[in-house]
Specification:
Elements lengths: L5 E6 L1 H18 L5 E7 L3 H8 L6 E10 L10 E5 L9 E9 L3 H11 L5 E10 L11 E6 L4 E2 L15 E4 L7
The structure holds inosinic acid and magnesium ion.
Amino acid sequence: MTHPDIKEIILTEETLRARVAELGADISRDYAGETVLLVAVLRGAALFIADLAREITTPVELDFMAVSSYGSSTKSSGVVRILKDLDEMIEGRNVIVVEDILDTGLTLKYLLKNLASRKPKTLEVITLLNKEGKQRVPISCKYTGFLIPDEFVVGYGLDYAEKYRNLPYIGILKPSVYAD
Ligand code: IMP
Ligand code: MG
């Protein structure tokens, strides 16, 4: 049953599951014989990393970072602050940053620069969603789940004002939800 605040489901639970399995297979092939450290950017990527990790057959380790980008809840400001850093050292390791959505790219650009300075063996990005044509800075993203139109989406980890993260699908909010 669709949540009453959702105008349209753009990615169903089945579609998400199938694509996450493909991404896991790609990573398993590319990193065969190696250990991968998945680094999720909290909180949006929490659901994605949990499902992705279970689709990878090569050894996987998990770590988490939390950042805040100042700005309103629907717009990115590009000013990033690390709220929670990694627990692990990443020097010499195969790091894949797991993102929920690539919008302007400002958050990720900052993070990648920061992580690269810690000298990982490899550093790549996987994003579940990529808003086509929205990037203000170039990000080389090795794995992309879906290209989506420039609409504000929620579900499967993505929120609006901390709501809707638990929806099993990804959908577009009704405009009336923003009006307050
Ligand atoms: P960026 O720095 O503009 O790439 O912003 C990335 C972050 O903004 C994501 O990790 C999300 O937390 C948030 N964000 C961007 N677009 C959306 C959206 O459509 N729905 C929910 N969160 C979004
Ligand atoms: Mg986020």
